[in-house]
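chain below, 261 aa
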Amino acid sequence: MSGQNQRLTVVPTVTMLGIMKARLVGATRGHALLKKKSDALTVQFRQILKKIVSTKESMGDIMKTSSFSLTEAKYVTGENIKHAVLENVQNASLKVRSRQENVAGVKLPKFEYFTEGETKKDLTSLARGGQQVQACRAAYVKAIEVLVDLASLQTSFLTLDEAIKTTNRRVNALENVVKPRLDNTISYIKGELDELEREDFFRLKKIQGYKKREIEKQLASARQFAEEQFAEKVSLQKGISINSAHNLLPAAMQKDEDIIF
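prediction:
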């Protein structure tokens, strides 16, 4: 969809021209702001992508270390420590909470782990293998930290990806549809107003010409009436016919004008 050859259906008036110009200014500012927002989100998106790559690279080593620590603990203790750990733990010591971080108007979810209360000393495999169990616990705590960070980054990554797509669609709509339509509408209104101005000018010229002709007709009628009156006067004074008086009219009128001036 493109707005290059489209315009809004409006009445071409000066008021509507002002409204369209104001809307164009608003669309231009909105396009600039959305473009800046898209750039900021893209920068944040790339930073998160780099963190995800580095976190996934380190996650492989951490998960491998934690699995190997569990194997060592099982080997040293010589038993399955799962049931002993479950019996010893009453409440979870590590928990995850979420919060929101605002980035250019987009709320990104952030997950972080925390320790609730004091951690009691683990007495699992106190007889033998206790050190390996504690090392295994520390390795899995570190694995939880990495997994929580990765979950936070992945969620922010997906949220940013959707926000960038939405923002880019709005930017493209303003740039390729809204602004061209407003430009075409403003050009149309200007053209119509210019045409109306030319029509008004032509109408005024026609009215002036009509009034000029009417005045000329009135002057001609007045001149003819004056000539008739003057011819009757000359006819009465000299006792001649009206036609003869008309023949003498130019000279008589010139004489009267000389007397007047």
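DSSP finds four helices and two strands in the chain. Residues 257-261 have pLDDT under 50 and may be disordered.
thats it, cya
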